[in-house]
Amino acid sequence: MDRTRRRDAPRAVHAVTMTDHVTSTEALTRTAAVFASAADALDPALYALARPRMAHLLGVDDAWRPAERHDRRAHLPAWPTSELFDRADRAVLTMAEQFVLDVSEVDDEQRAMIRAAMGPDAPVLVNVLYAIDVELRLRAAYAQLFGIDPFERIDPGPLAPLPDALNLMTRDIARLDALDPLTTELVRLRGARIHNCRMCQALRHADALAAGGDEEMFARIDDHASGGFDERHELALALTDAVLMSPGEFPSGLASRLHEHFGDDELAEIVLDVERNARNKIAVANATDGDGVGEGLTVYATPGGGFELVSTGPGVSDPRGRF
Fold first, then answer.
1. Is the predicted pLDDT of residue 10 greater than 50, yes or no?
2. Residue-wise DSSP of 138-190
3. What is the pLDDT of residue 49?
4. Residue 253 Rama label (left phi>0; alpha psi -120 to 50; beta)
5. Nearest alpha-carbon partner for 76 in 106, 101, 96
6. Who's near 68: CB < 8 A, 6+ residues apart?
7. DSSP code per residue over 75-121
8. How many CA atoms lie within 13 A of 303 on its CB side?
9. Which residue, 125, 176, 177, 317, has fewest beta-carbon neighbours within 10 Å?
10. What percent of the chain has pLDDT over 70?
């Protein structure tokens, strides 16, 4: 595993100001608030099962430990048959495993298991799984890129309802501006392909198109190592793959090469973008990622971190209200 020079951890931030510019530390504060809200939103016993199982499957070290009365980690390998796990436990662990391994393969039977086991609390679960997934991947990515735990000294502030915390996080990460728009769009589209989000694959950012992006370029994203991209674009896509496919151990030499071509703020933005974009996993897991998808591609913009349709008319894909 690559280890680069250790940097000082960011100072604690207690509030995020409303300006056009957002720093990566401010975005991390919003992200930490999501983690805190997620841990509060789910039955602690279920959270204490899902998180270590997801960490194990991702191959990452996780310092978080549940309260002793919820600690059944030693028995997790036997969860499908052990009497220590009830119907709700098994439904949650089934969804947690599929969410981590390949969210595009979540099926109607798994969704029905969650609804039957959790009733009105079922919609909360996928949001919580997303928050756990993001936290584990971000901590692992920062450890390998910067040698730090990005949340070690960040105060997430007061708890907010999880949907509100998610929306604030998504908006503020979209307001980061260290990275150029074409690289940002390539990273987004690669994540959309990996998660097979139908809506995300039907969108194109106006700024990326203005910066020279086109369909011929976007068609080469999945074969980016041999797709003729310049080194910065290829490395950004390689980092996207590493965060989404092998977060516990990046390919040898990748971190060093990234630091040769990107500044720290740019690298932080790529990783945060990857996880913001991965909110599409919620829609894919809930089978709502196809809602609103039209026949053609849709151009959009993100003023102030929001979402604005640029191309409108019959047949366009409209994700508003879907994510």
1. no
2. HHHHHHHHHSS-TTTT----S---HHHHHHHHHHHHHT--SS-HHHHHHHHHH
3. 96
4. left
5. 96
6. none
7. GGGGTTT-TTS-HHHHHHHHHHHHHHHHGGG--HHHHHHHHHHHGGG
8. 3
9. 177
10. 92
Give this prediction's pTM.
Answer: 0.91
pLDDT digits (tens, 9 = 90+) for 53-111: 999 999 999 999 998 888 899 999 999 999 999 999 999 999 999 999 999 999 999 99
Structure confidence at residue 56 (pLDDT): 96
Q: Are strands 203-205 and 298-301 parallel, antiparallel or unpaired?
A: parallel
- Crossing angle between the packed helical segments 264-277 and 181-195, to the nearest 10 degrees: 40
Distance CA 319, CA 311 (A): 13
Asked if 106 contacts 284 with a C-beta cutoff of 8 angstroms, the reply is yes
Q: Show the tokens assigned to 40.
A: 């509060």
> Distance between CA 139 and CA 149 in Å, rounded?
6
- Between CA 70 and CA 6, with CA 135 as vertex, the angle to 5 degrees is 120
Residue type, 192: A
CA neighbours within 13 Å on the CB side: how many for 15?
3
pLDDT tens string 108-140? 999 999 999 999 889 899 999 999 999 999 999
CB count, 10 Å around CB of 4? Answer: 13
